[in-house]
Amino acid sequence: MALGSLLNGHAAMRNAIDGLADLPHFAPKAKRVIYLFQSGGPSQLDLFDHKPHLAKRFGEEVPESIYPAERKTTMTSGQKSFPCAPSTLKFARQGQAGTWLSDALPHLAKRIDDVCVIKSMHTEAINHDPAAMMFQTGSVIPGRPSMGAWVSYGLGSGNANLPSFVALTSNGRGRAGQPLYDRLWGAGFLPGRFQGVKFRGQGDPILDLYNPAGVTRNQRRRMLDSLNKLNQQQADRFDDPAISTRIAQYELAFRMQMSVPELIDIQREPKHLLDAYGPDTTKVGTYAYNCLLARRLAERGVRFIQLYHRGWDAHGDAPKQVRRQCLDTDQPTTALLQDLKQRGMLEDTLVVWGGEFGRTVYCQGKLTDKVYGRDHHPNCFAYWLAGGGVRGGITHGETDDYSVNIAEKPVHVHDLQATILHQLGIHHERLTFRHQGRYYRLTDVHGKVVHDVLT
Predict the structure, then answer these.
(1) What distance in Å separates the CA atoms of residue 201 and residue 193, rounded to the nearest whole number?
(2) In a domain? residue 104
(3) Cα separations (Å) of 401 from 45, 50, 186, 398?
(4) Which 8-state DSSP code applies to residue 440?
(5) Of 22, 65, 203, 287, which alpha carbon lies 20 to 30 A from 167's?
(6) Same domain, 147 and 196
């Protein structure tokens, strides 16, 4: 009887956290995703899209035939002049494939043969919030489920004691950056249990993680059992899915009280590994700390791990700002790739790096030989992928002479999302949810898998 009770309880728990019965649709190449979202819009011209011939065009007006007025934001549309601002950063070919990289990324250069750089990303949104929403939810309109929520809904969790979707945030040096709203990792119209669980960057990673003074774990268990009986009575009476979600979340929270303290104890890692992630690794809430935590979450079965790093919005001193953000992100990002590879996890972990859009070739504000600003640019920008069945050491797509438009192999936001789902064994057109009379999906009515970047 005791064993039967235990097995029944375990089955009920699995039903609360497991994914859809018909998923994955085919054998996946990746078991998990680590998405390193660089909030603010990293400049492709100063990092990945080398345009050496632009040095001869320094200060020249970017032709309106190349960059029409209707594609400029209100922050620069009133400028009288739109001078060409070549990058002041140095570029060199790196790795066996000779991928062009800025000298602001010296650490990534060492692992560039594991990376596929996509230079031909594009989107419609030209302002931060809708552009970030587009990448995270497939729509510029708030209220849709985030990609992590879709994955959690479809595939469930690999660890009953941790969420299937975790969100982490960090700030760049000396800059707060663009706001990051909870809807970026929200469940939208999916059941609430699929939303991302945000780990806080200061204090306890999750509020109320520890029991109050004087309350034992057995007391907490008895309280939850009584509460669950009341909730179950309401669920039986009203058949409200929100009540079932509440029950599942209370149970997950109880299990996390045991699993999370061990998870965040990074001092258990060897010193050489902490050093590899950089000097900020042990500082809670930094990008380096979050990168190491992402690896620890990944090896414990968390399905989708989303890191948001703010500070890339370089309207003023772009060269200085780009280097500053790379000081925060380059070493930890590269250490994460190396850490995953050494553990044999990179082959089934898809790592994604990129922001909501790129930056303009023309200067925002005053142009000097050392200082220039760059405005928002959605027409073309760079992303990179690594692991999880992605071909390393290649570059996909090209831009025109000014890095204003795509010259070949365009990749839309929905194409990227379709490709990420594909690597997880999900056909993006078949992962749907009926809401308000129609079926929705992450990629809306668009999206094609970018097979050229896959093994």
Answers:
(1) 22
(2) yes
(3) 11, 10, 39, 10
(4) E
(5) 22
(6) yes
Pinpoint the alpha helices (H) of 59-127: 106-109
Do residues 422 and 299 both lie within one domain? yes
Find out whether 94 and 112 touch, Cβ atoms under 8 Å. Answer: yes
- The answer as to whether 272 is a domain residue is no
Q: Which residues contact 65 (CB under 8 A, 6 or more apart)?
A: none
Residue showing tokens 């469940």: 187
For the chain, how many structural domains are there in total?
2
Q: Which among 19, 85, 27, 10 is positioned nearest to 455, based on CA atoms?
A: 27
- What average pLDDT does this structure show over 313-328? 94
pLDDT, residue 175, reads: 67
Distance, first Cα to last Cα, the chain: 50
Q: Are strands 165-171 and 304-310 parallel, antiparallel or unpaired?
A: parallel
**Which DSSP category does 282 fall into?**
T
Nearest to 402 by CA among 361, 359, 357, 358: 361
Exposed / middle / buried, residue 167 (Cβ in 10 Å: 0-12, 13-18, 19+): buried
Omega cis (within 30) before 24? yes
**pLDDT tens profile 166-216:** 999 999 976 668 999 999 999 999 998 899 999 988 877 777 777 777 778
Quote the pTM value.
0.91
Q: Is residue 336 part of a domain?
A: yes
> Rounded to whole angstroms, how far apart are CA atoms 287 and 185?
18
The predicted structure's pLDDT at residue 240? 79
Q: Residue 217: enclosing H or E segment and its boundaries?
A: helix 217-238
Provide the residue count of the chain. 455
Tell me how far apart the alpha carbons of residues 405 and 90 are, in angstroms, rounded to a whole number. Answer: 22
Same domain, 125 and 249: no
194 and 214 both lie in a single domain? no
Question: Tokens for 293?
Answer: 């935590």
Within-domain flag for 276: no
C-alpha 359/C-alpha 44 separation (Å) is: 7
Give the C-alpha distances (Å, rounded to integers) separating 343 from 307, 389, 423, 455: 21, 16, 20, 20
The Cβ of residue 332 has, within 10 Å, a number of other Cβ atoms equal to 28
Question: CA geometry: angle at 189 spanning 14 and 356, to 5°?
Answer: 105
Is it the case that residue 4 has pLDDT exceeding 60?
Answer: no
Boundaries of domain holding 241: 210-263
